[in-house]
């Protein structure tokens, strides 16, 4: 499975998880942080460059890739778009 | 002609909210389904921004409760982020990235939860009833927008 497929899958999973109240403060899962790092490196971007592309501070990328960040679907969406992840075909 | 609005709203969770909101917008008679989604998202943006401003105004009230002020600031930020997420979804729709549009609305819908959760961290803080009402309002608007997008051809 390509790394982005894994990322797509995790995005969907996260989307569902985030609809459950008890997961509001869930940390970034290991698979997702690895997927983000791998996708970033595949595009030859530094953390600072990726952060700039989503209009966030480099610290945000650092926290996501280190697993310290609290899951935020908005950030995940921005990252997904920049990294070229296609979430899913609805039909 | 309200037939398109009626058909569109039938596929959403809150028909009455959907119909009354879209019907009241002057551009809705000429809108296609995607345009109706944009209108609804715009209503959500206004709602989120209004709540953020409302919360910010509460910060100006005299109070010695520093915890409450900190949480109110956090909530004002969350609703502002909700507005940002909805703005992103409009851009996504323009680019026909319907999956991301849906995701960003889901994100916008989650920010009020984050605000509510902030209050829960401090048992001594009561979650304001009017804020609970605003929370539900924004969530319902997001649900309607998501319902419309879910039925676009993608």
TrEMBL record, chain A:
<dbReference type="GO" id="GO:0003713">
    <property type="term" value="F:transcription coactivator activity"/>
</dbReference>
<comment type="similarity">
    <text>Belongs to the MBF1 family.</text>
</comment>
<dbReference type="GO" id="GO:0003677">
    <property type="term" value="F:DNA binding"/>
</dbReference>
<feature type="domain" description="HTH cro/C1-type">
    <location>
        <begin position="36"/>
        <end position="90"/>
    </location>
</feature>
<dbReference type="InterPro" id="IPR001387">
    <property type="entry name" value="Cro/C1-type_HTH"/>
</dbReference>
<dbReference type="InterPro" id="IPR010982">
    <property type="entry name" value="Lambda_DNA-bd_dom_sf"/>
</dbReference>
<protein>
    <recommendedName>
        <fullName>HTH cro/C1-type domain-containing protein</fullName>
    </recommendedName>
</protein>
<dbReference type="Pfam" id="PF01381">
    <property type="entry name" value="HTH_3"/>
</dbReference>
<keyword id="KW-0238">DNA-binding</keyword>
<dbReference type="GO" id="GO:0005730">
    <property type="term" value="C:nucleolus"/>
</dbReference>
């Amino acid at each position: 499975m390509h790394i982005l497929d894994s990322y797509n899958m995790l995005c969907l999973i996260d989307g569902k998880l985030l609809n459950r109240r008890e997961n509001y403060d869930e940390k970034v899962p290991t698979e997702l942080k690895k997927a983000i790092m791998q996708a970033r490196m595949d595009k030859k971007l530094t953390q600072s460059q990726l952060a700039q592309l989503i209009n966030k501070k480099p610290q945000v990328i650092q926290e996501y890739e280190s697993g310290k960040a609290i899951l935020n679907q908005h950030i995940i969406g921005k990252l997904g778009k920049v990294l070229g992840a296609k979430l899913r075909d609805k039909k | 002609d309200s037939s398109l609005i009626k058909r569109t709203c039938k596929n959403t969770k809150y028909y009455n909210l959907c119909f009354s909101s879209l019907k009241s917008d002057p551009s809705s008679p000429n809108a296609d389904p995607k345009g109706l989604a944009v209108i609804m998202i715009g209503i959500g943006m206004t709602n989120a921004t209004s709540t953020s401003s409302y919360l910010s105004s509460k910060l100006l009230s005299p109070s010695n409760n520093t915890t409450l002020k900190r949480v109110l600031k956090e909530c004002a930020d969350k609703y502002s982020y909700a507005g940002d997420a909805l703005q992103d979804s409009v851009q996504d729709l323009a680019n026909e990235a319907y999956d991301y549009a849906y995701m960003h609305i889901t994100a916008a819908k989650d920010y009020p939860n984050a605000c509510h959760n902030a209050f829960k961290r401090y048992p001594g803080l009561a979650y304001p009833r009017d804020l609970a009402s605003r929370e539900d309002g924004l969530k319902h608007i997001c649900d309607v927008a998501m319902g419309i997008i879910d039925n676009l051809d993608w």
